[in-house]
Write a structure and sequence with these properties.
Elements (H helix, E strand, L loop, with lengths): L1 H19 L7 H24 L8 H20 L5 H9 L5 H42 L9 H10 L1 H14 L6 H11 L2 H11 L10 H25 L4 H10 L7 H8 L4 H29 L1
Length: 302
């Protein structure tokens, strides 16, 4: 396990080094991310859901994530009520989790296909938090104010290829319908690219430039996010009447990095350059914190 973590850190560092040497640039990450989210991640989902049996209890996972997202948003409105409007919106847009890009490579290294199944269901709930709650709050606190169009939100959910793949793969699994071997074999080959591409992309996006004025609010946000995640994570771990893998998924899932889509939303809602830079920095810092947490849990707790 430690060896797998070492490989993961090396690949992330390689991505960062390639950027520093100008062999790759951050804008190249847009192409890599499209390949991940539209090709390799859906392929991985198809392979995962084809090879395992989904327990009925797993349907509760997306519900837990969605309820937690609502609680986080409500508490966030109170915790950050004295912050400037745009800063408040930036923090509330960061309420989702980076599952597909960050968690999948690490989870596969620790638990294999079984772990991916549980975290895939966790990611279904995350999709609704990101494209629903975070999107609405980000729009509300933008300079132009809320332009809530339910149809647009539904379109965003419908255009999320990973989410649609989760739903289709789940339906096929529950219906005991298996895809042809040719499709699964091709998807299996493609899915092997997901881990190295995801880790390279994380390294490519590492950046820690930050205005000094945002240090205090950022520390406040990190304390709030991880404090709340630990509180609810351990609470659900102790009281949920399911197997350990299920409870580990909830515990670790609530401590994952912020969703990468927050940066895209900030640009869409015309947030200031300083706000988008803050969001990017927080995204990077939460990646490092979550790696440390997952490593600690994998070696000393799990």
């Amino acid at each position: 396990m430690n060896q797998e973590f070492l490989y993961i850190i090396i690949i992330i560092a390689l991505g960062y080094l390639l950027k520093r040497l100008n062999i790759l640039k951050e804008k190249d990450g847009e192409v890599i991310s499209k390949i991940i989210f539209k090709i390799s991640l859906p392929a991985l989902v198809l392979v995962t859901f084809d090879s395992v049996k989904i327990e009925t209890s797993l349907i509760l996972l997306p519900v837990i994530v969605l309820i937690y997202g609502l609680i986080t948003a409500c508490l966030g409105l109170l915790v950050f009520k004295n912050e400037e409007r745009e800063l408040k919106g930036s923090f509330l847009m960061l309420s989702g989790f980076n599952v597909g890009l960050f968690a999948f490579p690490l989870v596969f290294a620790i638990w294999g296909m079984e772990g991916l199944t549980y975290f895939s269901m966790f990611d279904v709930g995350t999709s609704f938090v990101v494209f629903g709650i975070a999107y609405i709050l980000g729009s509300y606190f933008s300079a132009e104010g809320l332009k809530l169009k339910p149809i647009e939100i539904l379109k965003k959910l419908g255009k999320s290829i990973p989410l649609m793949t989760y739903l289709i793969a789940s339906i096929l699994n529950f219906s005991h319908i298996q895809l042809p071997d040719t499709i699964i074999n091709v998807a299996s080959t493609i899915s092997k690219a997901n881990m190295p591409l995801s880790l390279l992309l994380l390294g490519l996006y590492l950046n820690f430039k930050l205005d000094k004025q945002f240090i205090k609010p950022m520390l406040k946000f990190l304390t709030f996010r991880y404090g709340l995640g630990l509180l609810f994570g351990f609470g659900l771990y102790l009281f949920l009447p399911y197997n350990q893998m299920y409870r580990f998924t909830v515990l670790i899932g609530l401590l994952l990095p912020v969703a990468a889509s927050a940066l895209t939303f900030a640009v869409e809602f015309k947030y200031s350059t300083s706000s988008t830079r803050l969001i990017a920095t927080i995204s990077n810092i939460t990646i490092l914190i979550s790696i440390a947490i997952l490593y600690t849990f994998a070696n000393f707790i799990l």
